[in-house]
Amino acid sequence: MSRFVITGGKRLKGGLCPQGAKNEALQVICAALLTQEEVIITNVPEILDVLKLIELVEGMGVKVERLARGEFAFCASDIDFRYFETEDFYNKAVSLRGSIMILGPLLAIHGSGVIPKPGGDKIGRRRLDTHFLGFERLGATFEYDALNGCFKAFATKLKGNYMLLDEASVTGTANIIMAAVLAEGVTTIYNAACEPYIQQLCLMLNSMGAKISGIASNLLTIEGVKKLHGCRHRCLPDMIEVGSYIGLAAMTRSEITIKNVNIRQLGLIPDAFRKLGVRVEERDDDLYIPRQEHYMIEDFIDGSILTVSDAPWPGLTPDLLSVFLVVATQAKGSVLIHQKMFESRLFFVDKLIDMGAKIILCDPHRATVIGQNHESQLRATKMTSPDIRAGIALLIAALSAKGVSSIHNIDQIDRGYENIDVKLNAIGADIKRYM
Ligand SMILES: CC(=O)N[C@H]1[C@@H](OP(=O)(O)OP(=O)(O)OC[C@H]2O[C@@H](n3ccc(=O)[nH]c3=O)[C@H](O)[C@@H]2O)O[C@H](CO)[C@@H](O)[C@@H]1O
Ligand SMILES: C=C(OP(=O)(O)O)C(=O)O
Questions:
Q1: Which of 234, 262, 290 represents a domain boundary (last residue)?
Q2: Beta-carbon neighbour count of residue 111 at 10 Å?
Q3: Which of 187, 210, 234 corresponds to the end of one domain?
Q4: 120 lines ligand 2 (CB under 6 A)
């Protein structure tokens, strides 16, 4: 099993460029299935999950050309629908969460689709009801083949409709949008997710000829069109990677500039770090994190202990709570980290406790962190990355710790971070990769 060996305690210094956004790339690659013309996508992160999805669509018969690093041309003029019956399809689709988003486009262009229960992080129950309830509102029927663990959806004709989503699911909203753009009539989606990923998907679809309004809000109106054409689309920088680097700078007491972050699309992320006492300065479109020996957690206005919790966008993304948690371990003061969406994402704190962090796991959703104000350094240890964001949080912890740590199962980190070891070594880290 591949692993990182990290010699911690080094100060880092320099600039880091975030890759394109993983969750956006997964959506817009699926959207390329909606046209027979060429779609060029740039700033595509070449990370495990995205490369797997590219292989999956290639298996479906989509012509894929890698034009340059992070730049791909897709042409879905000749999809082989028999591929969906193969073991190769099953194995590829099951290995990542993003594969679920081929279903909406398949319903739109083919009237049916099948997908095994998708993988992704094992961070609690990850239901897909919203996807199927939405498809049903468009006139589709679906069935779950429990024996083979496959979802199947069928529709002789998709028809626009009003729907109030049972929750603002990110991939669910993306899937329904992609089914609705070619449906007959008008679809209105209320309680739609509106993350920058979804906004970008809608902008891309509009540039392909779709008619979507209400972008960036939770009320989307989609006027169905007969056909979509090709386009060129650029993915935004990955806001989760940006947040991870802010956390890294704070924990390692380093001076780091994060370049071209697209500040307007970061939402509450910079402010959430500021509440933990981390200085985050905006310099044009860069974020400058100065070297700080100490940072102090703010209280709420009434003097009560700060809570950092996730919420659907424009609330704070759940994908950064593990990073906020690790940053808090060395802050001055206390904070309650409340992961509302996922129920098994905080168990990695056991490792941080082994390293000397002062954390009480109150229940699967909440952890109280008592910061050590950098007065006692975390201790190096051996650990395994349970999921992508716990993985990056543990890597940050190891980089700040005294001594040599190792992290196993680093595929989990590679799922979302492109060449993280190379990038961080270039600014002074000491991370060795063993395959
Ligand atoms: C490939 C991809 O894009 N993955 C992202 C996507 O996953 P994904 O689209 O799978 O996640 P969902 O948005 O469907 O839901 C995530 C979890 O939050 C819960 N939930 C969701 C909405 C809501 O209003 N209330 C609520 O409690 C759901 O029940 C579920 O447990 O969105 C998640 C939530 O931002 C992110 O963590 C994932 O990185
Ligand atoms: C939960 C995540 O990913 P996925 O939905 O792909 O498992 C994540 O990116 O933090």
A1: 234
A2: 14
A3: 234
A4: yes
